[in-house]
UniProtKB/TrEMBL annotation, chain A:
GO terms for cellular component: cytoplasm. It comes from Pseudothioclava arenosa. Keywords: FAD, Flavoprotein, Oxidoreductase. Residues 4-300 form the FAD/NAD(P)-binding domain. Gene3D superfamilies: 3.30.390.30, FAD/NAD(P)-binding domain. GO terms for molecular function: oxidoreductase activity, acting on NAD(P)H. Residues 319-402 form the Reductase C-terminal domain. Its cofactor is FAD. This is Pyridine nucleotide-disulfide oxidoreductase.
Automatic annotation (TrEMBL), chain B:
Coiled coil: none annotated. GO terms for biological process: P450-containing electron transport chain. Residues 2-106 form the 2Fe-2S ferredoxin-type domain. This is 2Fe-2S ferredoxin. InterPro entries: 2Fe-2S_ferredoxin-like_sf (IPR036010), 2Fe-2S_ferredoxin-type (IPR001041), Adrenodoxin-like (IPR001055), Adrenodoxin_Fe-S_BS (IPR018298), Beta-grasp_dom_sf (IPR012675).
């Protein structure tokens, strides 16, 4: 019997495999991962794991015995070299030819690396994506070490927070005029800038990296776009990711900011599906691709159902989180297309939330140390409801009794 | 090892063991207890690892943080006496025998 093969043993791949079994599929399942470890959680890599507060086996999404116990053949350390879409055949790097009943591509995303011409191949230059990345850079986190972080998105800011917490001297450069330019409003960026500056992180916005220089193959200096040169002990590059589309693209599948799927996760090739960071899918009349754990899980489970002929259209309910120092940021919704941001002070010192609107419609919110605002906003967004903006800005009006600007429906 | 019992919404009893230092959520995940989603992996960010702690044990647990209480306020069918987020309970030998009930629905 031909197996269902899942390419990519990350959060999406592992959720998809488990869901196939939970839904009663009793045929063979192969879960194929390029990394030499069982499926694990990535978010703690840039946080607790790097701080040494979490043992390696606690990163694993499920105990190593889970896969065999559930009849899932976990094949680690194995890259898929090619996909023959029409025949639903996978060619593994070791030459194995695997004919499949159906295939799910859960190939994730790969960090954008600094080109070797700019010094990206020097020793002491890291990206933050995999367990191997975290383990390679961990020994660099020594008190007093000088680290340059390239990129002021959430990955860069989380790395800065860990480094500053461990007593490193941290400089972060962001080419755009401000940090979080792609993902958050000015208010949120300002809030995090102040947070990092209070921990002595030097943030240089509107400043790009021109070149890394080194001696004996190891980075020692960074030349910045404003002409200054700084001495560094190591560098973390956090300038975004690209969806893992290579396999799909080479096989002739349609690519559209990721592997293009319909609402059931079906790609342009019959019997081949995609889920997680690598997949773009329809969402509220647009097409989006999400880089997040909750989406990887929810979408993978929806696709598992679709692969078994039990599918319903996947409806994404985007949410995200980031931990920096003692601040917990929770984000609900997608803020693209917003025209107003309402700032609401929280109930406690240091808590605040920023609510994104397009006209009267609530799109998203960023909640800093304010889980009550987050939960309230998330439920409103998922119900398609919007609070009245003036009331929202008034912290004297409780979250639970915010007047709505849309017709009131039961939450 | 610490012995634990999870009672799931459909009445199934799952007995398991965990080592000290891991969270109750991790123990549930390792035992494949259905109904504990733990989408955020234990960052106290999502409230999808809600459990009801049997009354006899509630007093042995450290009190919930403000952040945990805030999230518990929004779970399905919260019980002020028994509701906890399992990712926020670190297991110790003193908790051996702990029994918790998994709610019918998370989120």
């Amino acid at each position: 019997m031909r197996p269902i093969a899942i390419v990519g043993a990350g959060q999406a791949g592992s959720a998809l495999a488990a869901k196939l079994r939970a839904l009663g599929h009793d045929g063979p399942i192969k879960l194929i991962g390029a990394e030499p470890v069982p499926p694990y959680q990535r978010p703690p890599l840039s946080k607790k794991y790097l701080l040494g507060e979490l043992e390696r086996d606690r990163l694993y999404l499920r105990p190593e015995t889970f896969y065999a116990e559930n009849g899932i053949e976990l094949i680690t350390g194995t890259r898929v070299a090619a996909l023959e879409a029409a025949e639903k055949v996978l060619l593994l790097k070791d030459g194995t030819r695997l004919a499949c009943a159906a295939i799910a591509l859960c190939t994730g995303a790969d960090p954008i690396r600094l080109p070797p011409a700019l010094g990206g191949a020097l020793g002491g230059v890291y990206t933050m994506r995999n367990l191997a990345d975290a383990e390679a850079m961990a020994p660099e986190f020594r008190e007093g070490a000088r680290v340059l972080i390239v990129g002021g998105g959430y990955i860069g800011l989380e790395a800065a927070a860990v480094a500053a917490s461990k007593g490193l001297r941290v400089t972060l450069v962001e080419m755009a005029p401000r940090i979080l330019a792609r993902v958050a409003c000015t208010e949120t960026a300002s809030w995090f800038r102040a947070l990092h500056e209070s921990h002595d992180v030097k943030i240089r916005e509107g400043t790009g990296l021109s070149e890394l220089r080194g001696s004996q193959g190891r980075v020692s200096h960074a030349r910045l776009s404003d002409g200054t040169e700084i001495a560094v002990d190591f560098v973390i590059v956090g300038i975004g990711v690209r969806p893992g589309t290579e396999l799909a693209e080479a096989a002739g599948l349609t690519i559209d900011n990721g592997i293009r799927t319909d609402a059931f996760g079906a790609t342009s090739a019959p019997g081949i599906f995609a889920a997680g960071d690598c997949a773009s899918f329809p969402h509220q009349g647009c097409r989006i691709r999400l880089e997040s754990v909750p989406n990887a899980i929810d979408q993978a489970e929806a696709v598992a159902a679709a692969m078994l002929g039990q599918g319903v259209p996947y409806v994404a309910r985007p949410w995200f989180w980031s931990d920096q120092y003692d601040v917990k940021l929770q984000i609900a919704g997608l803020n693209s297309g917003h025209d107003t941001v309402v700032v609401r002070p929280g109930d406690r010192p240091g808590s605040q939330s920023h609510w994104y609107f397009a006209g009267p419609k609530l799109l998203a919110l960023d909640a800093m140390n304010d889980p009550r605002a987050y939960m309230t906003g998330k439920r409103l967004i998922e119900a398609g409801l919007s609070p009245e903006r003036n009331a929202l800005a008034d912290p004297a009006i409780p979250l639970k009794s915010l007047p709505l600007s849309e017709p009131v429906e039961a939450l | 090892m610490i012995s634990l019992t999870f009672l799931t919404a459909d009445g199934t009893r799952i007995d398991t063991e965990a080592r000290p230092g891991v969270s109750l959520m991790e123990a549930a995940r390792n035992a494949s207890v259905p109904g504990i989603l733990a989408e955020c992996g234990g960052a106290c960010s999502c409230s999808t690892c809600h459990v009801y702690v049997e009354p006899g044990f509630a007093g042995l647990l450290p009190p919930a943080s403000e952040g945990e209480l805030d999230l518990l306020d929004f779970v399905c069918e919260p019980d002020p006496e028994r509701s906890r987020l399992s990712c926020q309970i670190t297991l110790t030998e003193a908790l051996s025998g702990l029994t918790v009930t998994v709610p019918e629905r998370q989120g």
